[in-house]
Amino acid sequence: MTRVLLVGCGKMGSAMLAGWLERGIDPAGIVVVEPGTAARDAFAPKGVTVVDKADAIDRAFTPDVVVLAVKPQVMADIAPAYAGYKSGVFLSIAAGKKLGFFEGLLGNVALVRAMPNTPAAVQAGITVCVANARVDAARRAACQVLLEAVGEVAWIEDEGLMDAVTAVSGSGPAYVFLLAEVMAKAGAAAGLPAELSTKLARATVWGSGQLLKQSPESSEQLRVNVTSPGGTTAAALAVLMAEGKGFQELMTEAVAAATRRGKELAG
User: Fold this and answer.
1) What is the pLDDT, as a whole number, of residue 267?
2) Rounded CA gap, 82 and 41, in Å?
3) pTM of the prediction?
4) Are 181 and 198 in contact (CB under 8 A)?
């Protein structure tokens, strides 16, 4: 049985916990530290132990994985209370906090830094991970299992890539939501009732994402498949793909801006 200590049970923490339970991880092996009552109300009836602070944890409990899921700005205050759990692996999902930051707080421990994204809330996320040298195959596998409960998992060796990862997949859902938002507004501007235009935009983004995930064809080929020469799609793409001012240039600039900001926030 994998024993998990989840520190913080907000939106991402609760999404992960729900995924673990659905995947069949034994709730008797899970302890959650969360001062709010929502986690206790939601998960204690399912057999999960929920306490409000670190010193309320049963001293006999020895977790295989300590998942740090509190907000980055309070991590420095909260994480040191768990430094004694050195036999397992620490898994952080705090954006922008580097491995070295945690090593400074926790000492000589196995650490995995992970960047999930918000579709994890519906178990459709993707998480990118980087580990320090103390993470062996077994600890890596334990983290993989926990993260797969909310979506796909990828690993990198160069922590320096995490800022770009954050810019693409961490911030990426906001770009997709913006696409649905502007499509709906454009449809309304073209004369559609606002409610219908919103429904069309949301369903189109969702359906296209499902097709993109399930199809063996590249995103480029799927785009070509929709585009008849001289047709309506081609007319729209001529605007969106205009050289020097099209969607590609805007997205490249946006991702670069997010990457720079990530580096600034990380120090």
Assistant:
1) 65
2) 24
3) 0.91
4) no
In a domain? residue 183: yes
- State the average pLDDT over residues 188-197: 98
Structure confidence at residue 204 (pLDDT): 98
Of residues 155 and 1, more confidently modeled: 155
Q: Is there a single domain that holds both residue 40 and residue 108? A: yes
DSSP letter string over 187-253?
Answer: HHHTT--HHHHHHHHHHHHHHHHHHHHH-SS-HHHHHHHH--TTSHHHHHHHHHT-TTTSHHHHHHH
Residue 120 has which token pair? 């994890």
Q: Which residue has the higher pLDDT, 159 or 244?
A: 159
Provide the phi-psi class of 98: left if phi over 0, else alpha when psi is between -120 and 50, else beta. Answer: beta
Residue 17 has pLDDT above 90, yes or no: yes
| Residue 235: both structure tokens together | 């007319």
In terms of domains, do 89 and 212 share one?
no
Number of domains in the chain: 2
Q: Which two tokens stand for residue 154?
A: 């990828």
Of 162, 194, 219, the one marking the end of a domain is 162
**CATH number for position 213:** 1.10.3730.10
The answer on 69 and 21 residing in a single domain is: yes
Burial pattern 88-118, b for ≥16 Cβ within 10 A else e, equals bbbbbbbbbbbbebbeebbeebbbbbbbbbb
The residue range of the domain holding 112 is: 4-162
- Encoded amino acid at 232, one letter: T
**What is the number of other CB atoms lying within 10 angstroms of the CB of residue 216?**
5
Per-residue pLDDT tens digits for 105-156: 999 999 999 999 999 989 999 999 999 999 999 999 999 999 999 999 999 9
